[in-house]
Design goal:
Blueprint lengths: L27 H12 L7 H32 L16 H8 L3 H41 L10 H14 L9 H29 L14 H18 L6 H5 L8 H31 L17 H37 L4 H4 L2 E5 L2 E6 L1 H20 L3 H28 L7 H32 L7
Antiparallel strand pairs: 1-2
Helix pairs in contact: 1-6, 1-9, 2-7, 2-9, 2-13, 3-4, 4-5, 4-10, 4-12, 4-13, 5-12, 6-9, 6-10, 7-13, 7-14, 13-14
Pfam families: Aa_trans
Protein name: Amino acid transporter transmembrane domain-containing protein
InterPro entries: AA_transpt_TM (IPR013057)
Length: 465
Amino acid sequence: MADHVSLNVPDESTCFDDDGRPKRSGTILTASAHIITAVISCGVLSLAWATAQLGWIAGPSVLILFSFVTYYTSVLLSDCYRIEDQLTGRRNYTYMEVVQSYLGGGHVISCGVIQYINLVGVAIGYTISSSISMVAVKRSSYFHNNGHDAACNVSRTPYVIMFGVLEMILSQILNFGKILWLSIAAAVMSFTYSAIGLGLGVAKVAQIGKIQGSITGNRTGTEIDKVWKSFQALGAIAFAYSYSDILIEIQDTLKSPPAEAKTMKKATGISLAVTTLLYMLCGCFGYAAFGDESPENLLTRFGFYDPYWLLDIANIAIVIHLVGAYQVSCQPLFIFVEKKAVEWYPDSKFITKEIHIPIHGYKPFKLNFFRLIWRTIFVITTTIISVLMPFFNNIVDILGAFEFWPLTVFFPIEMYIVKNNIAKWSGKWICLQLLSGACLVISIAAAVGSFAGLVSDLKVYKPFK
């Protein structure tokens, strides 16, 4: 009789990975959803303005250039996920761990500082952008009822607070694997508002019967203003392609076999191809519709007024998308702080104790007081800063300039050189260094232009207005 008894105990190999952690289930679809959520963010709305500063030749060319560079360096970075063998080598769970494995020393500290400052900045940028979109919904209805020239002064502060409260709740989600539904919803929303912006641009071109703009770009203002704005446009485009700082964390959600790097390369290729096509269409049609007058934010600066309900849908979609993008971007920072806290204070019940709260029909919710307090303080801090610093374009451009060279280009190239033992002064080494150097120059130019724009805006800034 005993020979026929089955306990139905699952094989441990089906529950855990090669490192003893819970089995991962990510696929090309899930990775693409996370990438699109991170890449197609509020930055797409400033691309018409960026194209207007660069003109019809340089604008689209720079968009394509950033796309190729981002794809190439992302492929290099994904190859560094595992040490040695792509299927059985030791995994690196975060960007900083990859840098530790290949470069070590001061590179790890500089990487961590840049990565996490950038993630804080992204959270602030998303909060600012979402509040601007919420205000735009209220203003569009007001303009519809009272005319396009009616005065409509609406405070952003209540909307920033509303967004912050929602993020406080969602920030208690534990990791990337738990927010797939949020990423998918956010990706759908990003396509929604981008498509509306594109459609309105096409309709505007059809209405006026001509394509506006010029080969050299914005012809208003002084020559020095044009130079600063051209540099600032580089920062806006760099931000639009920014996601390398969470690439490894996304790759760590992928099941294996096949090798995670193989899946990640396919997901990156698909996501960036779709993203670039959408960026080209939105940026070019926005510029064609408005020429030198292209607004800094295509859907909230009221280049379009009607149909107002369609603008409302687009701005609501932006808010929904940024709710998810905020969480996707902040997860690496949340996880890093909590991991370090456990390492430093392993015996602290406040940090390590998990309280299981039963939820009818679902798995119990794991409440950790340190996680609750630290993540709440983080969201409150970014919310307060967002109230005080309402400069959408400047924040976006500075973040793009700050992150692009070190995280998207320098570290992936240097780690790839170490991993593959590429000889110094060899042809491949020289080509990689030339690429890194060129991108450094672009980042410096973008940073200078972006800070110049911020200084200009601060001269007329009035807090809480």
